[in-house]
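User: quick one, sequence for these tokens?
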């Protein structure tokens, strides 16, 4: 299958847009992951403090 120049440009544009939105989603997931890790660490510290006391 051979694409015309216009079709190639359209395919490239679609791929760029998919990458753009994937990167945005990755940033959201990384932020969510960092928040969950912080909450887990805080919970572990509370549990460790209660156990030690």
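Assistant:
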């Amino acid at each position: 299958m051979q694409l015309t120049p216009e079709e190639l440009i359209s395919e490239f544009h679609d791929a760029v847009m998919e990458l753009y939105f994937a990167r945005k989603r990755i940033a959201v997931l990384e932020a969510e992951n960092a928040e969950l890790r912080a909450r887990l660490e805080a919970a572990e510290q509370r549990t460790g403090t209660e156990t030690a006391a």
